[in-house]
């Protein structure tokens, strides 16, 4: 979370997500119309904004490898007749996500790449996204995109459950969703399934094993379930923000059955593992890191703890705290040196043009030696009463951070412990935060899943994490000579 303040308005280009949407059916086009001048312009305009929203584009050998595989699979679509027709970016994001936009721009996050087992799976993920573009799914959902933009269908979920459907609810929903890196336009089930099938066709024509589409969906479903388990969420199938769409598990059998009549092809597993060795995994310390229930930002020199039963998602412009009893977000805004004015400004921004929102109470305090101020307001979201809290901290004369929290009326104290946990961190604590990375190792004689998992750089769920990362079932073992991925602390 570098806390930039860039806005993102992507309705016109409709970014497409593999990780966030479910879905295959419908007629499969035999050939795709080439990229039009209008589509190329749309993509060129949106590309810098997308890079900023998703942590920026990585450079170096890992990015070069992903770009090479992505261009090779994209050419199979007929959208462009040369590899140079496409721009493939490896994003510095810890969210499992991939998408593409018209104009030949294709994206995947490093986190999703690390989850994969071979090059065919990488080609399958990128091929799925290219399939959305080839089938012009974004154009077909243009009207919906104009209504939903980045707020998207997940915004409707938030608005309906907690924020209400009033103008205020929509404004609050936008506030809580921006910068989360999780929200892209959701497609229909048939469109997702069609994109899967197109990706499978591209795999086959490129000489890859077409079953890779099904196996990468299995890995993604397992990762979703693991994250839900580690975060203590009841729904161990998909994250809450994707609950209105089918999860990857619902597409696995369809993808595998579509691939069965085709050839086997290659997976290029050894090449893939050697090329992703050393890839950053998890949060980038420059954006802050989540360690258990604690968020630590070494550059901003701050840390806080989320309430028990809540989980955090780190984005490029904010870190969000999510639970059944409420939602909160930590970010920053322009600070003029007066905390009370700052808090009032944040309430005004929440209300937007449709409704003037002011704190009904406003108090000064000190939290762990940090000057602070907080305001509260009870508002009608169109369906019920909710409490909105803005809690701000002055870290310097020209720098302040603030939480925005929303809960059902009378429940705002659920975040009291979090508000009071904000603290400055020392230079030694900041320097101790180092990134995790993928270490590809060869299993030696005597190694076991348990012994290898002990080397995972986590304090909990080591074996479960290791198994999901390497697509190992609960009863699967490892053999000498096999290559596996381990997450270790970098240097």
TrEMBL record:
One of its GO terms (molecular function) is metallopeptidase activity. Residues 1-25 form the signal peptide. Its cofactor is Zn(2+). It holds the Pfam family Peptidase_M48. Keywords: Hydrolase, Metal-binding, Metalloprotease, Protease, Signal, Zinc. Coiled coil: none annotated. Its EC number is 3.4.24.-. Residues 439-486 form the LysM domain. This is M48 family metalloprotease. It comes from Altererythrobacter arenosus.
